Amino acid sequence: MADMSTLLLQALGPWRNAKAWHVALSGGLDSTVLLHLLVQLRKTHSLPPITAVHVHHGLQAAADAWPAHCQALCKGLGVPLQVIAVQVQAGASVERAARDARYQAFAAISGAGEVLLLGQHRDDQAETLLFRLLRGAGVGGLAGMPRQRRLGAGHLCRPLLDVSRAQLESYARTQGLSWIEDPSNTQTDFSRNFLRHEVLPILARRWPQAAASMARSAAHCAEAQGLLDELAQQDLHAAGSTSEFAWLGLPSLELTAIASLSPARQRNALRHWLSAFTSLPDTDHWAGWDALRDARIDAQPVWKLADGELHRAGGRIWWLAGEWLHQPIAPVLWPCPDQALALPGNGRVHFVGDIPDGPLQVSYRLGGEVMAQAQRGHRDLKRLLNERGVPLFARGRLPLLYRNEQLLAVANLPGLDSSPCGHWKLQWLPTSSDQGLS
User: Fold this and answer.
1) 62 and 37 belong to one structural domain
2) Average pLDDT score over residue span 277-297
């Protein structure tokens, strides 16, 4: 116990001042041992409050008895237990759907300054590395499960990654612990179970330290990925100049700064940047980046990804997601122009200064609009937008202020957003791009 306790305390050193530790308790061997170890340690060490969380997936009849098992375990250890029932979405992979539902539940209960503790061990890490290797993962994937990362408002930590399953089982038997054996863990039609029961034992017979060696390789890959992340941050900083259209509220980068890098550094920087917004493309799909980067200057290239689109405009690349991918509803009457007007799917507009006489409404471009300009007469709106270099993807969302059939103003564009005498201005706060963040 002393050795495992020491490893556990070392791994949890950065989190000793957390507001709370939540143990993800499946009732299996690893989470049972983790919870028992923590309860023993708090007898002699000052630790944050400990609670347990059991997620009930409802995927098999046997699982209905597991919450009661976990409740009995926690009662004996004097640890509060929270049971969360989740709905697993139907899909091609039950394993992945269950995992997604489980982690959504974990994220929901992780408050600021709190840590969720998972019991995954060294053998799990080796299994993860082998599984991802067979899927053709890169350095980031081969880094395996991270020891810690953000989760909801708090953090996730895996403090047992340096401990083998054999050590956990030896401890459990010595302490007289009982645990749940999930029947699905023996079904080798699941890829991970096949690796666990069929492949890894063969490797261990030939190389007894196979699991430890693979876990060590995962750690090397994690370190290498850290260096790649540092390089990406440097490259993204160089491409992070402020755009004159920063008020659009959209993430963007200077294209020239990215395109001047080697192809490998381009992909590395973009992976780092895009990972905050979307699932990353596979190797073959990166041809979409090449096409966007190399398109003609007068082209309007778009790279469609899982959760949004990358557009090129004005010498920059822009990330669009959520409501930015849909044309907003128009027209919208503005019965109380002294108050901000909410635009369905397109943020809100308001006046600065005096309020123009009505009746007023907001609409969007259809083509052929003209606008009266002081000392210039009536000018085609398309030409006015061209003169100001407004990105094409934004033109259909720019709020246009009308009084009857007269176009009075275009929000946020100097010279077009105000009355001829400058008594008022039309300001637009676009839809936040936060819905594009993962």
Assistant:
1) yes
2) 92
Binding-site annotation: residue ranges: 26-31
Question: pLDDT (tens digit, 9 = 90+) per residue, 189-232?
Answer: 778 889 988 999 999 999 999 999 999 999 999 999 999 999 99
Domain count, the chain: 3
CB 75 within 8 A of CB 120: no
Mean pLDDT score, 165-186: 90
Give the mean pLDDT of the chain. 91
Residue set of the binding site for ATP: 26-31
Domain residues for the domain of 279 are: 239-320
For residue 196, with 0-12 CB atoms within 10 Å meaning exposed, 13-18 middle and 19 or more buried, which class applies? buried
Residue 422 has pLDDT above 90, yes or no: no
**E strand map for 108-217:** 114-117, 148-151, 154-157
| pTM of the model as a whole | 0.82
Q: Kindly report the CA angle at 201 between 183 and 176, in degrees rounded to 5?
A: 55
Same domain, 315 and 338: no
From 255, 285, 320, the end of a domain falls on 320
Token pair 């936040």: residue = 432
Are residues 133 and 258 located together in one domain of the fold? Answer: no
Clarify whether residues 20 and 152 are in a common domain.
yes
